[in-house]
Design brief:
Layout: E1 3-11, H1 16-82, H2 88-123, H3 149-156, H4 158-182, E2 185-194, E3 199-208, H5 216-280, H6 286-321
Antiparallel strand pairs: 1-2, 2-3
Helix pairs in contact: 1-2, 1-4, 1-6, 3-5, 4-5, 5-6
Length: about 325
Amino acid sequence: SIDSFSITQPLDPLGTRFLRGRIAHDGVNISKNQLDLTWAQVSAQVISVYSQILALEKALDVARENLETTRQFFTQVDTRFQSGSAPKSEVMRAKIETSRAENDLLIVEKDLKVFKGEMNLLLGHMVETEFSLSDSLSYEPLQIEYAGLIEKALGQRPDAQIEKTLLSSKKKGFWSAILKTFLPQMAIGVERTTTDIENDTAILLSASYPFWGFNLGQVKEAKAEKDKQKIRLEAFKRRVGLEVYQAFLEAELADKLVVLQKKALDEANELLKQVTVQYEEGELAFLNYLENIRTIKETRLAYYNALKNYQEKVTSLERSFQKAPIPKGEMK
């Protein structure tokens, strides 16, 4: 009688095992960058809420200043009424303006509490937990230069690293398909044969070759995937370039607008002194005084909005080229 059994182990074509390992390594890097991308999105949310709190604290200061100005306005009108130099209707108009300013203050106080509660939720605290920021909304000239920003964005952003790693992985997959086409599929094994008179052991070597079609279908598919990812990466680079360029232009414009609004604010503060004196001395009519007070209040709000817009644009610019921007300042 003859008993025979064999054990074989397929072997990958030369070089494909190494490429498969590198593709797996690329997959690990993609996962890490996806984690960084998620963290960047979480960080952006925290920065957004943090910035809103800074802006609302500045808005609160503006609302208080406007209320103080309006109360001074009411005092001036009431003084003239008590002396018989102004009608009762002017006092009533002044009271209405004061009530509006008080309403504006209450709304800002409410909005500030809401965003502080949202920040507490992000940090895992009770929504009512009190805290203050060591930072404040203030103007600092734009320090970021445009030169080199696009290269920095493509070198730091997690989504850029993902696209580049995907292309690297597709290239390895393409070369793996080529090696499988031109190199045979090897196998090694052992065969044991037992007869009545002898026992025989043999080492088996085998090779299979894809003569039918030469595996060209897989090569074409791998090449198409590689070319598609290459086109996608180039499109991504152009999109990032536009995003960075637009963010820089918007930050640059916001910087100029803050400077202009600051000049207008200084002029408005000087105007307040002048119209107050003119009204006290009877040189300025009530409606003109009221209109100037409103202009001063609007100018203060315009400067606040310019500051808020500038901060938002600078944050967007930083986010366009950084890995994960970190909030500036501290919470106490």
